[in-house]
Specification:
This protein is an alpha+beta fold. Helix content is 35%, strand content 37%. It has 4 helices and 5 strands.
Length: 108
C-alpha cells in the first residue's frame, strides 16, 4: 500500500495514520502499528475505520457543526461510531462493533 500511495502521489510517503476495525484490541492495534513500521512508515496514529469515515465526512463540511453516526458494514463485521464535530474539534463519543455481524451474515 505504501508503494501504491507513493506512485499515486508521486512522492515518498514516510508517515501514516492507519485505520483498523472498531473491534481491534490493543494487541491487534500494536501488530498493525508494527507492520507499518516494518513497511518503513512512522505510524502517527491508529484509528477506528468508522471514526476515519466520520473525519473524512467532516473534512468535506468544515464550516458546519455536526453529530455524525457512521455504520461500517464490512464483509463480516459491523462497526459503529458516534462523532461530534464543532469549532474545529472532532470528538469520538462512542465506538462499538460486532465482529460476528456483517455483510456475509446479512446475505446468509
Amino acid at each position: 500500500m505504501k508503494e501504491d500511495a507513493e506512485k499515486y502521489l508521486g512522492e515518498t510517503v514516510e508517515e501514516a495514520i492507519i485505520s483498523v476495525p472498531a473491534y481491534f484490541n490493543d494487541m491487534a492495534r500494536n501488530a498493525t502499528k508494527r507492520a507499518g513500521i516494518i513497511a518503513g512508515l512512522k505510524v502517527e496514529r491508529i484509528i477506528n475505520e468508522p471514526s476515519a469515515a466520520a473525519l473524512a465526512c467532516q473534512n468535506l463540511n468544515q464550516n458546519e457543526d455536526a453529530t455524525i453516526l457512521v455504520f461500517d458494514f464490512g464483509g463480516g463485521t459491523l462497526d459503529v461510531s458516534l462523532v461530534e464535530c464543532f469549532d474545529n474539534i472532532i470528538e469520538i463519543l462512542a465506538v462499538s462493533g460486532d465482529n460476528q455481524l456483517g455483510g456475509q451474515d446479512f446475505d446468509d
